[in-house]
Request: fold
Amino acid sequence: MDGFNTFEKQDKILLGLTDSRDAAAALRILQQQGFAVQTFTAEHEVTTGELLQLLADKAAELDCAFIATGHFARIEVDDDGISHVLPAADADADQSAVLADVPQEVLAKLVLPLGDFEKADVEEILAETAE
Reply:
């Protein structure tokens, strides 16, 4: 399996939780990547953009270097330091369109741990976690 980028040991990251299995897989992957993961759940139903802004605001309060969600998409930073949303490796699971309007200051902090995985790989990660 690809998709296990490494970050500075114990960088703090704030993961936006939903009731989806994808968020649970994202949590597991982030932990394996060496993040100190904190979690956040919105108190009411919000759009993806609103969730990401809430995460960014809360991350600043908690001194978290990054934010994350369980979306299937990828972030790439170009030579000018601009972050771009790219489709997920699994085209059938791709959710990049819902992240299209996220502001640059939020994208710069966003980690999408599921973007390089196939949906079947994520299911396998969840199965291993349940054992």
Observations:
- The chain has one domain: 12-130.
- The longest strand covers residues 12-16.
- DSSP finds four helices and six strands in the chain.
